[in-house]
Amino acid sequence: MREDWKKHLIDQGAEFDDGDHLRDFGNPERERSIAVNGSVLCDLSHRGLLEVRGQDARDFLQSQFGNDVREVTGTRSQLSSYSNPKGRAYAVMRVLLDRDAYLLETSAERAEAVRKRLTMFVMRAQVVIENAEDTRIRFGLSGPNAEEQLQQTLGAFPVEVNDVLTRGEVSAVRVPCMMHPRFEIFGEIDACKPLWNDLNVHCAPVGPESWRLLDILAGLPEIYPETSEAFVPQMINLHALNGISFKKGCYPGQEVVARMHYLGKLKRRMFRLAIEGQDRPQPGSPVFRAGGDPAQPDGTIVDAVLHPDGLWAALAVLQTPAAEQPLCWGNPTGPAAHVIPLPYPVPEGA
């Protein structure tokens, strides 16, 4: 994290773990509650960010990612995935175009692995791939009045999910939500600091766990080292989130993804769960049918964060028949896991 931005956040009450990892703003329980019910700002420095530039950048990314990068413009972003030749996702990312460079926002735990793997395939292409976490300030805005707040501060707001609005040195991206409008904002520090301050008048600053909670409630998947290469993109609902193109040319894993779309029926997909118990369900940990075979998990945790109601808000890839039965996390007699509707429809096919 940039020292000048870190100082700004500390002045706002931010508390850090050892190093540059923002933990919270002093009251994580209250922050979780406000994130779900009110208006919040959240620094997004905990997210990884790569920059891809060069005259061949678009064609190169088009040959690697599962969505159609040609549709990314200065006013339109997209979700996408990067998979191995067997169609299993290394990472999920948001792809944006910022002037002459593509930005890839993904989990911090996967960013360097994605950079290294992409670099392996650059070969003679005129492409540069770099870590860009400190080149731009990034923060999130969520709340019932978020649209009006951006209207007042920027003069407009992105209308549709994935839309991008740029005003001067600041850009705002509309991202999926469960209930209240959500936006991710990025830009130069001299523009972002006063914008944060203006928005903070009617918002509460929160730590990264609160934004992670909002992602889970919105049904947005994340890939961690524990789940890398575990899921085909359709299993984590990217087809329901406009994160896959079935019309573009070749990319790693395309045959598997296309075969599942045109010939197969999706046997596993992502569901939202509310999980009881004291221990946090970790990515990659198993989900079972209650009383089922302990050697045969029926699902896998994608992500989980504590909800203000005291349960763990989670996303999990489940065998679709199992989702209609009582579930437990960790083992067949473990804490109960309850299926909660997602905020978007998921096609029965893939």
TrEMBL record:
**GO terms (BP aspect):** iron-sulfur cluster assembly
Q: Where does substrate bind?
A: 184
List each copy of the GCVT N-terminal domain by range: 30-157
Q: Which InterPro entries match?
A: GcvT/YgfZ_C (IPR029043), GCVT_N (IPR006222), YgfZ/GCV_T_CS (IPR017703), YgfZ/GcvT (IPR045179)
Q: Under what name is this protein listed?
A: Glycine cleavage system protein T
Organism field: Thioalkalivibrio paradoxus ARh 1
